[in-house]
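Hi there,

I know you've been waiting on this one. I reran it after we fixed the sequence typo, so this is the corrected version. Both the input and the resulting structure follow.
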Amino acid sequence: MTTSNDGGRTVSEVIAFLSANPDFLGEHPELLASANRKNTGEAASLTTRQLVELRERNRDLERELAMNRENARANDERFARVRAFSLALATTRKIDELSAAIATHLGDAFDLDDVVVFTTTRVEYSNWRRFDPALFESLNIARTNERTLWTLRPEEYERLFNRAIVNPGSVAVAPFDSATGVLALGSSDAHRFSQQQDTVFLDFTVALIEQTMARLAN
């Protein structure tokens, strides 16, 4: 290494000087103190950054755990509601009891504003209506084996559920496999149902209703 532009010594020369004068640093302890302060500052800065990163990771983990706990709580509540609905259907002996169970458990327990069974056979109950393919087609709700979770404008919502709302609402529609109609669940909350939601519980609910209808028909 060459000397610096300001005439300073090279590293090799410094090492050679200290080797030839072993008592130099002992006679000048302020030089070691200055070097230690610099090294200590760098170490403290690194430690601080590591602590900040650790705190951030801990906060991320806490948020994730809180979200998992909330999801678990919501799933437990949903399971309890589905269980109550299943037991209610298991004890029904007449079609009017089925109608009441649908209105009570799917409406109140699942925080819905409207529950309607659109059927090709029975229309004698307040929450049962005659199935009209043209109505569903006009609302862009296809009557297929696919479940539909959709947002409806107020006028569309009223046409489907015969109830006026001020703001857009949302609907979950699931056809019965036996082609006897569809189940429509409505909410005045436009975000209650969306295409990103899982339909496992909706599928299970429709299957329960359909099985109960078949049992009562025999």
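Quick highlight: The chain has two domains: 9-91, 94-217.

Best,
R. S.
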